[in-house]
Amino acid sequence: MRKKISISKYISYLFLIVVSAIWTIPVIFGIGTSFRSQTEVVNEGFRLLPVNWIVENYVKVLENTSTAPILQWLWNSVFIATTHTLLVVIVISITGYGYSRMKFKGRDLLFFTLLAISFFPNVVNLIPSYKIIDILGWVNTPWAMIVPGLAGMGNIFLVRQFMKGIPMELDESARVDGANDFTIYSRIILPLIRPVLIVCALFSFTGSWNDFLWPVIVYTDVEKMPVTAGLLLLQDIYGNYRMIGQLMSSAILAIIPTLILFFFAQKYFVSAINLNSGIKG
Question: TM spans, by residue (predicted)?
Answer without folding.
Answer: 12-32, 73-97, 109-130, 142-163, 184-205, 243-265
